[in-house]
Amino acid sequence: MQKKDIIYIDVEDDITAIIGKIKESKEKIIALVPPKRIGVLQSAVNLRLLARTADHAKKRLVIITANSALSSLAASASIPVAKTLQSKPGLAEVPALSVDDEEVIDGEQLPVGDHAGLDTEADDGDDSTVQSTLPAAAIAGIDIDGETASAVAKNAKEGKSPKRKVKVPDFGSFRKKMVIGGVLGVLLIGFFVWAIWFAPHASVVVSARTSDVEIQTPITIGEGIKADNEEKTLPAVVKTEKQTDTIEFTPTGEEEVGEKASGTVKFYNCSVSGSAATVQSGTYISSGGKNYVVQSTVTIPNAGLGGSSNVCDPSFINPGVSGDVRVVAEEIGADYNMSDDVNFDVAGNSDVVAISSSAISGGSKKTITVVSASDIQKAREELAEENSDSVKKALVEKFEDDVIVIDDSFRTSSSKQDITPGLGEEASGTATLTAETVYAMSGVAQPVLSAFLDTAITQQLGNLDGKRIYESGAKESRLTDFELGSDKKKATVQLNATGKVGPKITDEQIKDIVRGKRYGEIETELKSIEGVSDVKVDLSPFWVFTVPGDDNKITVEFKLLDGDD
After folding, report:
1. Staple 333 to which of 230, 269, 365, 521, CB 3.0 to 4.6 Å?
2. What would you report as the CA-atom Rg of the chain, rounded to the nearest whole angstrom?
3. Is pLDDT at 21 greater than 80 in this prediction?
4. Around Cβ 78, how many Cβ atoms within 10 Å?
């Protein structure tokens, strides 16, 4: 079913006002309801103007009236009429009556009942003949006091009085109507109570001009410490996540392993002073750039041939010589293997020489791959990086909504780790690191930071005479350059925030001013306050014209404008 728009015409409306209402209507079907005095609709020209307007706007007009004169005028303009909003509309027909001069029925001589169902209502002051608003065919079946309209007409023609039936009141229908009326009355009273006492609401938006106050300072945060503007400390909110993960890595450490060469030497005393010589254990002897370590202390007697130049010659008769003394190469490797009968210099004792008495052999060396400390550190970092995104997201979700999370506070620490093969051990292929890693992030509660910034702004400005802090800047603050202290319990961070300071107006002051007043009064009074740039008042529902007297029904909002706006 198509929707229709109902336009009620006032007695004072002229034709242009009605045309305007038709054009403004959003519906395709428009029902015009005229007043008792049809006024402007008495003109056929005006009705044709309405019909043309509706035709141009592609809309259908219906006039709701029982006035036969208006119905006839509407029919001349091709506008359908209906008696009620629920009736089916149609064009009124005025059938031509054939009157015989010899058979004229005087209406005054007909019984009152013969006129039943006829519309005798005419415009005030209109003496024109009243005509039926519906065609004869349309009213033929209408029941009038128990008889159809056609029967009434027939009886009237034959001069018979219509039959009347005594109607018995239907008390059940009456009772039903009373109940429905009572319910509707209660609902109507409830609506008026709601509309007057509960529905009214006012929203006041005050545009206040503010100035920015920049706060830039390093602060110290930590669990368990108190907020202190003088010390610039704030309590921190710390969330942790513990995970045990395993990663394989390829060792890159290298180590040379092997055996040290060893053998025996004899020491010869070359001193011409005639005294014995002693070589201590641990003394180095060298030959060809290779060092060997003496394994025991030895004393070499003197030959007793003072002044002879050949006392260190092994072939000399009765030389001062020691027995065999074991020596070991300083480092591993085959390069330290020596044959026998090789001369060695003795460190720190130029009067003594050593000659290998047996081959110095057994030295060997090879390079193997081992797990180094740098390999382990790199594997641990890769493990942390591999999980960082997912763990960081999980940590952020642990914080309450009013906590400002410090993004670069994300950090890791290992409580336990297991490496196979172990540090410094030879590895073939890959090694495995299993680590229990603790991830952590820090943040600062916004209410705590806001209180800190309020005090900082007040201290920076000296005083807030006639001003008010509208925004501390905590919500949009930036906490950067996180650096954990050596004790791992405190950290320093750079705080950057922008507060907004404006005229000193509170919500309570605004409510005191606007309570019970109209828009014009509110706008004039609030705009007179220094720093107030604009005022907007929304009253609801639409029938409310003054701000309610209840503060709970008044909402105050401040719209902040920068100083240059």
Report:
1. 365
2. 58
3. yes
4. 12
